[in-house]
Design a protein that fits this description.
Radius of gyration: 14 Å
Number of helices: 6
Strand content: 5-15%
Helix content: 40-55%
Mean pLDDT: 74
Number of strands: 4
Length: 127
Amino acid sequence: MAKKRVYVETSILSYLTARPAKDELKRVCQRLTAMWWERRSNWECFLTSTVLEEIGHGDPEAAARRLEKAKFLEESSSVRSEFLSRFVESSSTGAGKSNNGCCTFGNGGNSWSRLFVDMESETFGQS
């Protein structure tokens, strides 16, 4: 069975590399992100040049940490605008999954709860 393709957007790399947050909800997001990152080989993960550009901005040390993690992801230059439109639509509605079978993990809508459910499904061998 083919792996699901996962578009990794900017907030994933930010949560993964940020200093521990003072806010408890943000700390939970950081922990979930770290847990997911350890299991990322279960999915075909990719990012775009836009994400690479975004993570290179800001504090130079933080940007370097984000860029270091991005080295482990495939850069897709052939992502069609239709795919990105579906991604944005599914993220904004909190659906967590677009019609084309690509899971969307980020901090919009309830994507974090979808991430947790997908991780649990992988852990227990469910689909």
